[in-house]
């Protein structure tokens, strides 16, 4: 007679072997296949996915590579280039960590640690690339750059705030991050020069903080109060208080001189709006506010502002382009 094997007994025995394997050797490791995306795409495809050119990525990698390298190559450690690309992928898409992990061939916890590590390494480059003008030469060159836009003298920077969207941080203080547009954000103060180069950043205030509050508690305000930048001024919008070194538009200009001041102010301060537009086009994660500003406010744009009541029309008055204001500076003469 033939002996028939009981199938349930076999399955139960296999289950016991699997449990024993798990107890002895632990959870089996999953080996991910990582692609070399730096060489896999051409320049156009690479820029579409990471929002930077390959040359820019190489320059950035040279600055932070030492901080991203591991002391050994055990356990299939992630190369500095892959770490940087994973972080840039999250910046450029604003997607979830799981999506970036699937794209890069990593575990989501690995991507989480990498994003924190790379972001901190990039932030430590702040002092090298974001510098407010110092010295007579830099200050005069910055003022001349602004003066060439619309003949507004002594301007050393254009200031404004922009909201960077974040997830709710949770906890008892989560609601202070909800801004007036009803989403959670960090209200970031930015000062830039006439070439759209950022010269000062304050990025530690919750979205509910007012622009003037951020400026009043900033180090740049303290420097101006201590007279470190004599005969220098900043241009801001109506969200700031008009003062000795921060000038805003006149709300109700009446004379041609006041109207001319407003027109020159608008043209000159427009650089900070253009700066935000460039950043939001490059990294869509920032694009939660108004669309990018135009390259330059022309006569048609000014006419629209006049019709909207933002600035009254000037029937007769000097041409703002030909009206040259003296750029005197007793401190430097």
What are the SSEs and their pairings?
Layout: H1 7-25, H2 37-40, H3 43-50, H4 54-68, H5 80-93, H6 97-104, H7 108-123, H8 126-129, H9 135-150, E1 155-165, E2 185-192, E3 198-206, H10 211-216, H11 219-225, E4 233-235, E5 246-247, H12 256-282, H13 299-307
Parallel strand pairs: 1-4, 4-5
Antiparallel strand pairs: 1-2, 2-3
Helix pairs in contact: 4-5, 4-7, 5-6, 5-7, 6-7, 9-12
Entry summary:
This protein has helices spanning 7-25, 37-40, 43-50, 54-68, 80-93, 97-104, 108-123, 126-129, 135-150, 211-216, 219-225, 256-282, 299-307, and strands at 155-165, 185-192, 198-206, 233-235, 246-247. The chain has 333 residues and is α/β, with parallel strands linked by helices.
Q: Can you walk me through this structure?
A:
- With 333 residues, the chain is of the alpha/beta class.
- Helices cover 46% and strands 10% of the residues.
- It is built from 13 helices and five strands.
- The protein has a five-stranded mixed β-sheet with strand order 3-2-1-4-5.
- Strand 2 and strand 3 form a beta hairpin.
- Helix 5 packs across helix 6, helix 5 packs across helix 7 and helix 9 crosses helix 12.
- The longest helix is centred in the last third of the chain and has 27 residues.
- The C terminus is likely disordered.
